[in-house]
């Protein structure tokens, strides 16, 4: 809720029962799933994958090979496996990813022009001082703007974990809102009509499940800060890089 310009996370003050959470997570590994349901689940998981390369030695050739794999990850007896959801790269590789996806048939000029026999694999880009999130906010905003101008459909931002762990929650929420504003204004920047913002919490660095809960609530509230008036489906949260 908004109060005097500050954000509060009343739900985040609830503590997480670590023992029960670990037991619940462990129980997923002991469930028996029928083959039909298992196969359907695996295919769904594949269709939701962001096929990613984020290395210092990334090159246009490597991104091109990744895009080929994104369009056709492999084959089964029933035929080719479905394409993945997105290819995730550094901002400098966005043009190469777009060109390769169009070459391999994984990218239409517009999602609205996709037929029943086509696909439209999205291009995601890390931004906001990835992976540390420690850059000045002005640099992170400019980083996001450039990625949007280059044609990214999705922006993967990392929160400033140092600020979060220091208790500067309003600062973290403000930064998420400002990056979301850039994504919401993507069309005016020459980018796609709608750009999704994916907020990476980097849960492995948040130290406790209570912090993970607080960061999750904080990020969700910041993404919804426009009162739901922004484009539908413009943001969600991720656990880690």
Tell me about the largest β-sheet: 6 strands, parallel
H and E string: EEHHEHEEEHEHEHHEHE
Total number of helices: 8
Structural class: alpha/beta
Per DSSP E runs of 2 or more residues, the count of β-strands stands at 10
Q: Which percent band covers the strand fraction?
A: 5-15%
Order of the strands making up the biggest sheet: 3-6-7-8-9-10
Q: What is the alpha-carbon Rg in Å?
A: 19 Å
| CA-based shape | globular
Poorly predicted segments = 1-5
What's the average pLDDT?
A: 88
Query: Alpha-carbon distance between the termini?
Result: 28 Å
What portion of residues is helical? 25-40%
What assembly state would you assign to the polypeptide chains in this entry? single chain
Summarize the entry for a quick read:
It contains 8 helices and 10 strands.
Question: In terms of topology, how is this protein built?
Answer:
Layout: E1 2-3, E2 6-7, H1 18-28, H2 35-47, E3 50-52, H3 60-71, E4 75-76, E5 79-80, E6 86-89, H4 94-103, E7 122-126, H5 137-149, E8 154-158, H6 161-165, H7 169-184, E9 196-200, H8 209-223, E10 235-238
Parallel strand pairs: 3-6, 6-7, 7-8, 8-9, 9-10
Antiparallel strand pairs: 1-2, 4-5
Helix pairs in contact: 3-4, 5-7, 7-8
Key traits:
241 residues; alpha/beta; two-stranded antiparallel sheet; 10 strands; 39% helix; 14% strand; disordered N terminus
What do these coordinates show?
This protein is an alpha/beta fold and 241 residues long. The chain is built from eight helices and ten strands. It has helices at 18-28, 35-47, 60-71, 94-103, 137-149, 161-165, 169-184, 209-223; strands at residues 2-3, 6-7, 50-52, 75-76, 79-80, 86-89, 122-126, 154-158, 196-200, 235-238. Strands 3-6-7-8-9-10 form a six-stranded parallel beta sheet. Strand 1 and strand 2 (6-7) form a beta hairpin. Helix 3 (60-71) crosses helix 4. The radius of gyration is 19 Å and the shape is globular. It starts with a strand and ends with a strand. The model is unreliable at 1-5 (pLDDT under 50).
């Amino acid at each position: 809720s908004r109060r005097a310009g500050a954000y509060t996370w009343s739900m985040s003050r609830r503590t997480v029962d670590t023992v029960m959470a670990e037991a619940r997570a462990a129980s997923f590994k002991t469930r028996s799933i029928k083959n039909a349901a298992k196969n359907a689940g695996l295919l769904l998981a594949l269709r939701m994958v962001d096929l990613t390369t984020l290395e210092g030695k990334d090159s246009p050739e490597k991104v091109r090979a990744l895009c080929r794999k994104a369009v056709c990850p492999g084959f089964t007896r029933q035929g080719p496996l479905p394409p993945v959801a997105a290819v995730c790269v550094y901002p400098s590789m966005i043009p190469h990813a777009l060109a390769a996806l169009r070459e391999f048939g994984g990218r239409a000029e517009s999602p609205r022009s996709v037929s029943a026999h086509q696909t439209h694999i999205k291009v995601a880009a890390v931004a906001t001082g990835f992976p540390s999130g420690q850059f000045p906010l002005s640099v992170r905003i400019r980083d996001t703007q450039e990625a949007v101008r280059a044609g990214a459909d999705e922006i993967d931002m990392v929160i400033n974990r140092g600020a979060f762990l220091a208790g500067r929650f309003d600062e973290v929420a403000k930064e998420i809102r400002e990056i979301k504003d850039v994504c919401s204004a993507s069309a005016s920047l020459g980018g796609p009509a709608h750009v999704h913002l994916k907020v990476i919490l980097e849960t492995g660095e948040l130290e406790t499940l209570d912090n993970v809960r607080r960061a999750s609530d904080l990020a969700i509230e910041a993404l919804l800060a426009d009162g739901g008036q922004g484009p539908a489906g413009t943001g969600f949260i991720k656990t880690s890089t």
